[in-house]
Amino acid sequence: MNENNVESILHEERLFPPSAEFSTKARIPNRAALDSLIQVANKDYVGFWAKQARAELSWHQPFEITLDSTNAPYYQWFNDGELNVSFNCLDRHLKDKGDKIAIIFEGESGDRTTLTYQQLHQRVCRFANVLKAQGITQGDRVVIYLPMVPEAVIAMQACARIGAIHSVVFGGFSAESLKDRIEDTEAKFLITADGGYRGGRIIALKAAADRALKSGCKSIQGVIVLRRTGHSISMITERDLWWHEAETGISSHCDPVWLNAEHPLFLLYTSGSTGKPKGIQHASAGYLLGTITTMKWVFDIRDEDIFWCTADIGWVTGHSYVTYGPLAVGATIVIYEGAPTFPDSGRFWKICQDHGVTVFYTAPTAIRALMKAGDNIPAAYNLSQLRLLGTVGEPINPEAWMWYHRVIGGGHCPIVDTWWQTETGVHMIAPIPGVTTAKPGSCTFPLPGIDIAVVNAQGQPITAPDQGGYLVITKPWPSMIRTIWQDKQRYYDTYWRKFDGKYYLSGDSARRDEEGYFWIMGRTDDILNVAGHRLGTMEIESALLAHPKVAEAAVIGRPDDIKGEAILAYVTLKETCSIGDKALIIELRDWVADQIGAIAKPDEIRFVDNLPKTRSGKIMRRLLRSISRGETITQDTSTLESETILTQLQEKN
Ligand code: WTA
């Protein structure tokens, strides 16, 4: 277990209770209100969720069965009910909120557009008809590879409307990664764009898509291409269709397809500690319910709020808190296409000011990067509309928390540090902003209806304060992962086997302090958290190994001020290659970027003669971690194949 970040947070004693002003207006205004929710949930969590599902979702066919555990841990929720997610996000608001702005969009170059709920509904319906006209029907998979533009949300919602299962691939992923995902989903259609703007450059999405399709992806029958940048791209007549041309003459009336509550809503690929990325499969009703309850409890969302979650739709945060949750509660959202530092580090704050953002949600890595730019930059903007701030993706270091609170929140905004995962669908551990006293660096307590424990390797709860252990979820919850696409066994092995199907294993380690606050300590498996994104060390290693000159590779994370973790790769080369070749370092870094995407590019590559291995041939990554951090070696090195390797590695430091 990685317990290295415990030190810095262990003695955090600053307390931040919400202000009376915030609490009075909050949806959950005081301890008594929260306790009563928690008590009901504790007494009968199934009944609690049934009540929430009846109150928060619009059902076509009401459900009778709340939780079906027959095939546990392949749990099902509300599975004799029927609804449509897009109907819940759009149609049901039209009567009262048709003219309310749903989306405020700002492109990187400053272009702006807005869509009301009425307009968004029309665009989703029209595009859903386009998909139908292309022969896409319920259960078909559609891969979406788009920049952060309103059409990304429209495409997702249109899929949901007709029961097609979308799988969004982050625009920063390479052709190779796109291909793997298309092939694993066996998608029938790909939706992409000519390009998108990021960091002052054009991201050539269509060109990457062409490369992916050229080398495989036999299931793809057609490609829909959004014109965003207008630069010249090649279109293949038989296969490619412009979005705007496909919409010509198409009706904007499209009845939603009523779907079983358990119908898969989407697949989203995330890194595993072994093998290729896993297609996390989410269902419809339970997932949507979780996005709604957390929008209300954690983001305390109100009708007049302007809500901005900065995550890209390529990540789960962009699914739950851009496309689904905020629209399901009828909120106004901001979507921004580009980089936080374009044209300078004031961009986020300018957007907050210009659009009057009231609730702002971002990642610690962005906060740290913008903090580095100094206090003068945010000081130049009027941020007084902000009333609530959030973070997600990795533990936030107390220093960044304090800066966020003081400089961005003006000392008066509560901060919700939300712990959750692609697999959990929505927030699991997070403060209730009008009630919970925050401690910088802690995600505080599990939400109502969610049962979480820290246990030892035998699965027994750890009762002593500040003792690290496995973070597990002890009861099923509506927005939980249903399975891994096409791999039921891997679902069981990854999340349930360790505790015999009794607990969901998050893969994180955590501790609770004397007052029961949860502190996330890091991952227990070989997953890196680089700039808030999960990357499997395995994936990066296999990318390196695919290079003709590489013999062996071991990838580890080392602490990084901005990114949380930086990627360090130890590489041994095939005999004919010379060590210390600078050009080769560049070549290998670019190679990984090509194979996986720029986010996976190693920050540093060290060539070595040998990697430390156990006698059974397993690379000792933990040992490499200690060496790279210059720590004294406390691990047992007696199993090491050869002790001289150690000396050589230490010299390389
Ligand atoms: C980490 C992102 C500490 C954690 C929603 C988890 C966090 C992984 C927090 C999931 C937080 C996420 N504090 N760590 N508030 N939020 N993590 O699937 O290690 O991209 O297991 O989902 O990010 O990453 P994922």
TrEMBL record:
Mg(2+) binds at residues 547, 550. It catalyses: acetate + ATP + CoA = acetyl-CoA + AMP + diphosphate. Residues 91-477 form the AMP-dependent synthetase/ligase domain. Its EC number is 6.2.1.1. InterPro entries: Ac_CoA_lig, ACAS_N, AMP-bd_C, AMP-bd_C_sf, AMP-binding_CS, AMP-dep_synth/lig_dom, ANL_N_sf. Residues 539-618 form the AMP-binding enzyme C-terminal domain. ATP binds at residues 393-395, 417-422, 508, 523, 534. The keyword Metal-binding applies. Its cofactor is Mg(2+). GO terms for biological process: acetyl-CoA biosynthetic process from acetate. Catalyzes the conversion of acetate into acetyl-CoA (AcCoA), an essential intermediate at the junction of anabolic and catabolic pathways. AcsA undergoes a two-step reaction. In the first half reaction, AcsA combines acetate with ATP to form acetyl-adenylate (AcAMP) intermediate. In the second half reaction, it can then transfer the acetyl group from AcAMP to the sulfhydryl group of CoA, forming the product AcCoA. Belongs to the ATP-dependent AMP-binding enzyme family. This is Acetyl-coenzyme A synthetase. It comes from Candidatus Nitrosoglobus terrae.
